[in-house]
Amino acid sequence: MQTKHRPVFLEIPNIRLPIPGIVSILHRISGVILFVSLPLLLCLLAGTLSSEAAFATYQSVVSNPLVKLILIGLLWAYLHHSIAGIRFLLLDAHKGLELQTARATAKFTLVAGLVLTVILGAWLW
Fold first, then answer.
1. Is residue 108 within 8 Å of residue 86, measured between CB atoms?
2. CA distances from 32 to 8, 47, 60 (A)
3. Is the pTM here over 0.90, yes or no?
4. CA nearest 34: which of 62, 76, 68?
5. Which of 62, 65, 87, 106 could form a disulfide with 23 if both were Cys (CB 3.0 to 4.6 A apart)?
6. Where exactly are the transmembrane stretches of this chain (predicted)?
7. Any binding-site annotation on 5?
């Protein structure tokens, strides 16, 4: 009797990624967020440099709490992407490939990105 090879149904919400996998996915997501938001950030920067009236408009837009939350989210994306990028460069250089070290650096990446975002976000708020 021949066994049937049936397709496997994967329950995506129930899959548990290890912490290095989460850091990898967040690194990609933060890179996309930064790439997509780059025109907006350049537009804001160009507007602040053109005239005093444009700078006053910029200040009134940035003083909105929703805009501040978006900018803090972009700050997290930048910090996480930078820290994770350094981690991946070290992994490419064959540093920290051991399982415990890889998990520890992944945890450090998550915590450092969040802590730096809270510190810089509170300072800039």
1. no
2. 31, 24, 27
3. no
4. 76
5. 106
6. 25-49, 69-90, 102-124
7. no
